[in-house]
């Protein structure tokens, strides 16, 4: 069983390399992390002590533009994970056709155990830690798991104090009042929804497929809401403790409100309440992992009954599980495509900050739809031509073929390969 995110990221590149004729030298160049910032940040706790936290910023490849990627606060963060996530960001930005490379940040911390003051001091300490390496034309961080607009506001404020001038384009995912973009909070979920619509169209499905969604954080909850509003039947929803299940369809709005108010799905009526892991085996047409990576692995992929998997989380299906599922005929819409909405609207936010001209939400949504639909169709076409006579070629490989070629072209033009 292989659950090392960095090894997974490498395996994914190698799987495509043969198909599109990349040399070993090109593969190594594509895998190389340009710069890894790592260290410990010190934070004063409420009882006056000082606590240290391990922190990273991985900058993978900036051949196509500044590094771009979120900052994750989680107890399970590892160096391998941060590096892998930065690599995935490079492919995602490339596939989206936006002018960025890949970056990612992480801190080993369980933010739920911190007071608001401690969380602010941690966020500010992290901003000071990465300040020499970021900037609107260098590396542009954003939120990821357990970080949000409030945290981005603290970080931008700390960064601007350090550089002694305003630079809103240095961090995206900011609240509107300090230069955020309309439509950013919903962007990844909405992008996932556009991907779902593009998938249904490409498959020429007559009936809307049913969905099982793992994780109801930012991404999972917006996605489920959009799908529900558009008439899709969401038959299972899960958080880290429970799965709620109703084969007739869940009232998503009510379930999310319940979870928001009570902090748990427990007690929600009209649904069966099952253990968290049960969501994987639900008999839905599409399984949508929207929580953390490696949700589907060698030891549990057999539970999947869905014909399609849409990766809204980053890296939720391990390469080992993917190989087996693809053999079985399951179509997996890869993370770099299905969840690109967040970084695309981050790009819009950055562009608005740089130009000083702010857009309406309807413009954001429309432009997002155009980028995602075009990325989806391009990847689908590439996949269709690559898989002729070779059933083992996954949809991910089609998406990767486009993304890797574009990065390689930029590297060659810059004389880096
Ligand atoms: P979040 O912190 O808002 O939500 C994560 C959710 O996952 C939480 O609700 C948590 O309860 C749930 N969870 C954790 N373990 C679980 C488990 N075992 N089973 C079911 N649920 C579980 O984070 P998010 O921003 O929604 O990000 C989710 C995923 O999407 C991550 O992989 C992230 O990297 C990816 N992503 C996020 C964005 C974005 O814009 N926020 C963009 C691209 C990709």
Q: What would your notes on this structure say?
A:
With 417 residues, the chain is of the alpha/beta class. The protein contains 13 helices and twelve strands. The chain has helices at residues 5-20, 24-31, 79-96, 116-130, 149-163, 187-202, 218-229, 252-262, 319-327, 335-338, 341-355, 361-386, 395-413, and strands at 35-44, 50-61, 67-74, 101-108, 139-143, 211-214, 234-238, 242-245, 272-275, 286-289, 308-310, 331-333. The strands form two sheets. The protein has a seven-stranded mixed sheet, with helices on both faces. A five-stranded mixed sheet has the order 1-2-4-3-5. Helix 3 packs across helix 13, helix 6 crosses helix 12 (361-386) and helix 12 (361-386) crosses helix 13. It is globular, with a radius of gyration of 20 Å. The two termini are 33 Å apart. The model has no long low-confidence stretch (mean pLDDT 96). The chain binds nicotinamide-adenine-dinucleotide. Residues 143-146, 188, 214-220, 238-240, 276, 290-292, 312-314, 339, 342 line the site of nicotinamide-adenine-dinucleotide (NAD).
In brief, what are we looking at here?
44% of the residues lie in helices and 17% in strands. It is an alpha/beta fold and 417 residues long.
List the total number of helices.
Answer: 13
Main beta-sheet strand count, sense and barrel state: 7 strands, mixed
Fraction in beta strands: 15-25%
- Catalogue the unreliable spans: none
| Widest sheet: strand ordering | 9-8-7-6-10-11-12
Q: Which ligands, by name, code or SMILES, are bound? A: nicotinamide-adenine-dinucleotide
Secondary-structure element series = HHEEEHEHEHHEHEEHEEEHEHHHH
Helix content: 40-55%
The SS-based structural class is: alpha/beta
Give the oligomer, counting copies of the same chain as homo and different chains as hetero. Answer: single chain
User: Using only CA atoms, what is the Rg?
Assistant: 20 Å
What is the 3D shape? globular
Distance between the termini: 33 Å
* Beta strand count: 12
